[in-house]
Amino acid sequence: MYLSTIGRKDNPGGLSRRSLGAMSGNVLALGTVSLVTDISSEMVTAILPVYLVLGLHLSPAAYGLVDGLYTGATAFLRLIGGYVADRVRRRKAVAGFGYGLSAVAKLGLLAAGSSAAAIGVVLTADRTGKGLRTAPRDALITLSAPEDMLGRAFGVHRAMDSVGAFAGPLVAVGVLAAVGSSTGVGGFDAIFVTSFCIAAIGVLLLCLFVRDRRGPRPPAGTVSPRAVVALLRGPGVRRLLLAACVLGMTTIGDGFVYLLLQRKEDIATGWFPLLAVGTNLAYLLLAAPLGALADRVGRLPVMLCGYGLLATVYVLLLSPISGWPLFVFTLGCYGAFYAATDGILMALAGPLLPEALRTTGISIVQSGQALSYFVSSVLFGLAWQVWGAGTAITVAACTVGAAIVITFLLLAPRRKEVTA
């Protein structure tokens, strides 16, 4: 099997320099696809609230429904995409279908017009594409780098992905400026068309440059519902899934963080999108270095330090600090939190999962974390409404501290595992 030579005494380097270079090329190809696709996605995400509320005059209730579909449609679809990819042993094909579906959805926004129901269907299709492609893509990364370099591999990929997230809103602003429209439907239509064209380029790059790693056909029954249940019975996978759910409960959502910043500093609405740009800038600068650090000193310590940075963000929102120091420290810590946790969790998962069920296992971990994140956001919104923002963010900060302790107890190497 592909990973069977990593770390063996008769192959101390794990892989030849030539093989390592080839696999790094596959990681870079996947990163380029994500970069281009994120430019397309973030172009739409950046203007979607303005388009729906100001352009199409949707009510807040209708916008809340559409936004819920946009953010919550991926959790169970990750499971489907992961299992199908392992079953047919075509991770690239399943990921490509997801990328293609999201690209076509951009044109669907043009056809939807002002119908809230049609827009909801189109956005659900877009999120369906994201849900189908995420686990196969991350599984390909774990199969395209040696185990001791998974932190670097995911760090490089997430850094390239965040370049797209950083550039997307800026491209959207540029398109609106080029067509001479800031809120007119014609300007939004231009963004949707441009977004589709960019997404199509991403699909083309995937087809031309990403290589699938199919390996030998696994024995009959290796990829089956019974095998998935057996995988979840494994103590390592079970502890990782529980830790992912616990950590997901600590993340309140970018929107809440930015709204709290806006409330604290009275930011003009026009500057609001730049808060996400600041976070993405810190993310793209730190993802690769922190991935390499995780490979060197341990992935669990780096990930737990990342959640320590999330607690720092919450504390900063409660602190008397104001002005530019607040923005620099808060957005910098928030971007560093993502850089230290997003890819690192997948790097922790990779070695625990057999190759035949790699995509399914990753999708289960991602889905558990996504569902916990959804619950956390809902509970935080209720806490804000009932108790006020200060109390809600204080509870969130305490929750992060408890989650760090629980995660350490769950994932710290057991004595038997160390001596085995």
UniProtKB/TrEMBL annotation:
Pfam families from the UniProt entry: MFS_1
Major facilitator superfamily (MFS) profile domain residues: 26-415
PROSITE patterns (UniProt xref): MFS
Annotated transmembrane regions: 20-37, 44-63, 159-179, 191-210, 240-261, 267-288, 300-321, 327-349, 370-387, 393-412
Cited InterPro entries: MFS, MFS_dom, MFS_trans_sf
Main location (coarse class): membrane
GO cellular component, one term: plasma membrane
Source organism superkingdom: Bacteria
Bilayer topology annotation: Multi-pass membrane protein
Keywords: Membrane, Transmembrane, Transmembrane helix
Protein's UniProt keywords contain Transmembrane helix: yes
GO MF term set: transmembrane transporter activity
Intracellular or extracellular location(s): Cell membrane
Keyword Transmembrane helix: yes
Cited CDD domains: MFS_MJ1317_like
UniProt-recorded name of the protein: Nitrate/nitrite transporter NarK
Organism (species): Amycolatopsis xylanica
